Structures
1.
Amino acid sequence: MLAANFDWQFIWDHLPDFWEGLKQTLKVAAIGIAGSLAIGIVLGAARAHRVPVVSWLAATYVEVIRNTPILVQIFFIAGALPHFPGHPIRLEPFTIAWLAVVVWGGAYNTENFRAGFEAVPYRYREAGLALGFGRLGTFFNVTLPIGARIALPSTINTNASVLKNTSLLTAIGFAELTNTAYSLESESFKAAEVYFALGVTYLIVVWTLSGLTRVVERRLALPEAR
Amino acid sequence: MPDWVDPVAHYMLHEGLKNTIRIAVFAVAGSTLIGVLLGTLMTIRFLPLQSLLRLYVEVWRGLPIIVTIFLVYYAFPTTPYVHYRFGAFTGAAIGLTLWGSAQVAEATRGAVQSIPREQHEAAAALGFGWVGRHLFVILPQALRRLLPPLVSLIANIIQNTTIASLIGVTELLATGQRSIERLQFEAGANSHAFAIYTALLAVFFCISFPLTRLARFLERRLV
């Protein structure tokens, strides 16, 4: 029991609103996690195998994204690209939303997977080549299955961060969970109730995601790490 | 350089960057003090205390920082028993401190636990109590492991001060956005959004890049 003037009924009545916002958050987060994992594997491989040009571009991409605030990146996509000199780029709010988190998470996952692929002992790759696999064959049959599983624990943090960072999309008015709460508060003035419910919702979702990915991690862990 | 650049740069650096650094200094200092204290306490084997500290860490690490800041700034004034209204600057600094202290606490716990037990025993044999043992023997050694995450924390907190712009603090991002609006108002359709947002990215990069490099260097050297 918090106190008599804490309006539980208000939270209960507005659960459907929270659910609408949560659906948008989960949708963007799902695209964000999938997309950033894909970018991470491709560019991480390019970095680990020092593919000319691609590796250098990937390193620049990683440093730029990791050393600038994601909020400024979101505003850059939403507010600066439409004024790109000579060639304005206007995107749908939903496109901006998933693009921002994919680009951000991709940079972090590139580092995660680069470290994972580099941790695969060189003799494993030599063994793959000796068995007659080409360079790509060695990557898909040796480096990827082992290196991705080494990288898995560090990608878990990135996944959770991608989910949490979708909350910043409220700044451009994208109607995800935080934005829903913000609008609800500004029309009802029930700040304590709204943000308390918002915090609890995020904790449930973030903790569930971390728990689920930890189960997946344990299932996929390398035999010697089990 | 076009005419508009000079006053805008002056405003962004003297008003915006100053506030960004001010918030960051408070948040980094607060996070380090609270985080090291809580992280050290987390190594005590006393279940109620351990679960309480674990809850603190998991809650503030689990919440997006923007939600923490909204809680402190918008929700606290109407929360029963709290009813406390912070200014936007203080609210942002507290929100960042809650998040940062949770990060530091987790890192400190790991660093303290990595110190061999013999060090505790030797310090105890020399007559140090729990506090003296940790303050003068364990933490100075744990600092080696703690330094790289602390340096990355500074970079992260500086980046995350941009969230303060959403509750109306005129930090770097907010001053940039106000400049864009003012220029658009004065010059009509001729928008400087692209130039100013690019400049914002560049300024943050110049601050953050040396810090993340330093963190990586320390990690390689010290651990």
2.
Amino acid sequence: MQEVLIEAGGVSKKFCKNLKRSLWYGTKDLAATFLGLSENRTTLRQDEFWAVKDVSFQLRRGECLGLLGYNGAGKSTLLKMLNGLIRPDEGEIRIRGRVGALIELGAGFNPILSGRENVYINGQILGLSKKDIDNRFDSIVDFAAIADFIDAPVQTYSSGMKARLGFAVAAQMNPDVLLIDEVLAVGDIKFRGKCYRRIAELRQAGTCIIFVSHSILSILATCNTGLFLHRGQMLASGNIGDVVAAYEVHSLLEQTTTENAAQNGHFTKNTSLRIETVALQDGTGAACDYLTVGQYATLCISGSATEPLQNVIFSFLIRDCAREDTTSLYFDSETEGIAFDVPTGRFETRLEIPFFGLGPGVYLLKVNARLKNFYVLDADESVRFKVVRSPAFAQGAMFQLPHQWHFETVPSLSAQPTDNV
Amino acid sequence: MKETIYTAHATARQSVREFFQIAADLPQAFRLGYRLARRNVAAQYRQSVLGLFWTVLPPLANALVWIFLHTQQVVRLEEAPAVSYPVFVFTGTLLWQLFSRAIQAVLNSPQSNRMLLAKINFPREALLFSALLEVLFNAIITGLIIIIVLLLYGVPLGVHTLLTLFGIVGIILLGMAIGLWLFPLSMLYRDVALGLPIILQFAMYLTPVVYPTPTYTGWAKILQYNPISPVLETTRNWMLNMPAGSPYLSFVLVLSISSFLLLIGIVLYRLSMTIIIERIGS
């Protein structure tokens, strides 16, 4: 078993919502500290709340912990405490070895000065010595791939170049503990690949890493343990797969509004067709609020028409909420050459999908009914639903297709029994 | 392997530990402070034509205004200073600006690097070193200008002139001590930074910068206890190659007290940092 590098026990931190009051509390805290008064830090004063409450975990050499949580869950606050920027109000953090933080790339960059000057400034802020930087200067410029511009002022750099140079300097750190906060989201895919390779190298060399990202895929790819924070509370911790699953189930409860009452959100009031409800059904035909990867699924639109309509076209569009503006699926009856004649009265349109292939996540369902010339009769885009994984679904994938495994032994040619006579 | 422990806010007992931690961090803090000071000086003047001249232009302009007022008899002095008035005013305003720069540098350095403070854990004293080095850099340029002024006006340089260095150290020390004690509150409330120039301007007229010390009577007697007066007067006397004279004892007293306050101020600086960052956020 490797040695423990980070030990957090019952760590809590409170913040104040009101700025004026916050400053006043700060003044009082300063006075109390200077005068050596010990005060009760465990009760909340007016307008205060726990940004982080009772978080405990251990991390060993070479491990990587993924911090999951929505915006404002307390992830950055926890990182700041681990980095020693702010102190916990309760509990204790013990860290062995040198701590490095990738929280802001290019800290201390001065726009007027050249890239070369800024490499030295940024490097020394991160704790590298001048000699370290002298020795590794070429590899920094190499990593950032900006050799031609190293003597130009940083204000002429693109944001990608600044980020690359910032990471290139930070990558020279050899910390025992590395804290990473969402910084790798910038930069193009080639650069991100480089960054992840460097992180993997550090981990191999025994650095333990705490990684904050909103991308479940990169967390799954990088981390072996996880911690799910929600409003400062630790809702799950341990094996990364379990934590990601807990995070996904939680986002289902938070975000899903199926069986939506479309009455409020009509596209237009003047048409003769209304979409009243949009619902999901499982394989048995029962209404459900989530779908399972690889299972039978039915999407239903029910509504009514006040006059008979001919050649009505329906469409279902599914978007991935985690990836803005990515259309995951689009079913349009017109492109399939199908149109419906809707008589006066109630109707139900069902789209049956024998194998629902989208991976776990939260999706937005948009439906519309229209006539051939793009005359939209009614539309609804207020249904969000959740897809959960089945036990058979391998984590990390975005999609699954119906498939079958086959295995058979193949008699090798040489060993073939010959019946040559 | 070094183990770091973070618990709830520091108490008096931890202040002692902080003190040793500060000492251990000093070499790295100094190197980083040097780098930051170089950055600031380089960045400050790279985009200007007059460049370094800007460090001394404001006090020189100020001095010229007073010399003008004096030659036009708009301002009359009860008693004439021991040297020619322009020399008196030039030395006074340049020394005063050194003092006010020292206060402001200590306050500005962490203020302008608050993003850095909130995001990265580097030895915090680096920002103080950077402030100190910038002030020293300023002092060198100021010194050169003063020497030129003295030579122009034919003031003889002598043994006492060397003691000026000691006086300049004293001025910077007092300024930095005051700055350090204002620092915690100034990070929380902008009022400090906004009000300081006004107070400093007022203080300048309560100090024998542009006119010699008058004889105070009544309520004005309290002005005798203005701590900067003896420091500035002693330094100027040395600079003009005169003996330090009567303010010398007060000068020594003020320096001892401000050295002590400076040391305490550095510990307060370190202790208050986590509390301040928590309040000013990212």
